[in-house]
Design goal:
This protein is of the alpha/beta class. The chain has two domains: about 150 residues, Aspartate Aminotransferase, domain 1, CATH 3.90.1150; about 140 residues, Aspartate Aminotransferase, domain 2 (3-Layer(aba) Sandwich), CATH 3.40.640. The strands form three sheets. Strands 4-3-2-5 form a four-stranded mixed β-sheet. A four-stranded antiparallel β-sheet has the order 6-7-10-9. It has a two-stranded parallel ribbon with strand order 1-8. The longest helix has 22 residues. GO terms for molecular function: L-tyrosine-2-oxoglutarate transaminase activity; pyridoxal phosphate binding. InterPro entries: Aminotransferase_I/II_large (IPR004839), PyrdxlP-dep_Trfase (IPR015424), PyrdxlP-dep_Trfase_major (IPR015421), PyrdxlP-dep_Trfase_small (IPR015422).
């Protein structure tokens, strides 16, 4: 038997191959876009790489996780041994998550709600990717559609293509601090709309729709023993870097930050190509910036916003300052000269 499009023993042609719809949607991956930007980095360059494109603050010491979580992991070996010897956990675990963890999370989230959550209200997943997969799989049905924000996280589109769910985009209004355009939502929604995705605090806009506290999911020990001052410290660092990001972007002539970020870890900035000499679009800028300055920024095209940039400020302050200074130098070097 031949692989791929070869012929079988009876002369029949095999049609093994990928689903074209899924193959196309896979190219929209945010990680794939960042990988292409990273490929322009000169690994032997004289300066360290500054990642202002991805949303993973864990590599910076100022965003190190709580010692309670680290201690819980270190002591996990004893807990695993005890669990195995108890013979209580040899069967399949509940697909929604173990009860003690769901009880602790329900209790924690209820602190900021006018009502009390039950463990049955909690569904634990291995991160946002699995959560999106579960939700889309549950909601998908023939003829159904989903309303997604633009700009937004592209994995939704990829998963919807896999499940055959029609995607309809509503806009986040720049002039109103990235608020939802309710008129566009009303125009898009119909009897086949099964869900509308709302991200708060906003990614990638950095906006906050309400003052409701952003809850963490975590295991019972972390929720019980992590003190408020740990979270307050992280929030203070984010507030500091958000302020720095907003102020330093004002110094860069070819980009504009329409709104100061209020939450999340990101900010969207508008690219003014008319001020640049040899930059074709946002993707071209990010590739050249990575090559020349070893600074990684996400092109807005990956989020449905061409000629915008997404910058993360979940970075230690000194690295953020250095990265934005390099971005400024890059823009000055590529600035269109007045004739």
């Amino acid at each position: 038997m031949d692989n791929g499009y070869g012929r079988g023993a009876r002369g029949r042609q095999w049609r093994f191959g990928p689903n074209d719809v899924l193959a196309d949607s896979a190219t929209v991956s945010l990680r794939e876009v960042l990988n292409r930007v990273m490929a322009n980095i000169q690994q032997d360059g004289p300066r360290p790489i500054i990642p202002l494109g991805n949303g993973d603050p864990s590599e910076f010491p100022c965003f190190r996780t709580t010692p309670v979580a680290e201690d819980a992991i270190v002591s996990a070996e004893d807990a695993i041994v005890s669990a195995v010897r108890s013979a209580k956990y040899s069967c399949y675990a509940p697909t929604v998550g173990v009860l003690p963890a769901r009880c602790a999370i329900a209790e924690y989230l209820s602190l900021d709600l006018p009502y009390k959550l039950s463990p049955d209200d909690i569904f634990l997943t291995g991160g946002c990717t699995q959560a999106i997969e579960v939700i889309i799989s549950v909601l998908a049905r023939p003829g159904a559609n989903i309303l997604l924000p633009r700009p937004g996280y592209p994995f939704y589109e990829s998963r919807c293509a896999f499940s055959g769910l029609e995607v309809r985009h509503f806009n986040l209004v720049l002039e109103r601090s990235w608020e939802v355009d309710l008129d566009s939502v009303e125009a898009l929604a119909d009897e086949n709309t099964v869900v509308m995705v709302v991200i708060n605090p906003g990614n990638p806009g950095g906006n906050v729709f309400t003052n409701q506290h952003l809850a963490k999911g975590a295991i019972p020990r972390i929720l019980e023993f992590t003190k408020d001052d740990f979270f307050n410290k992280i929030i203070d660092v984010l507030r500091q870097t958000a302020d720095m990001c907003y102020e330093k972007i004002k110094e860069i002539k070819c980009i504009t930050c329409p709104h100061k970020p209020e939450g999340s870890m990101f900010v969207m900035v508008k690219l003014n190509l008319s001020r640049l000499e040899d930059i074709n679009d946002d993707v071209d800028l990010c590739h050249k910036l990575a090559k020349e300055e070893s600074v990684i920024i996400t092109p807005g095209s990956a989020l449905g916003m061409q000629n915008w940039l997404r910058i993360t400020f979940a970075v230690d302050p000194s690295s953020l300052e250095d990265g934005l200074d390099r971005l400024k130098s890059f823009c000055q070097r590529h600035a269109k000269q007045n004739k």
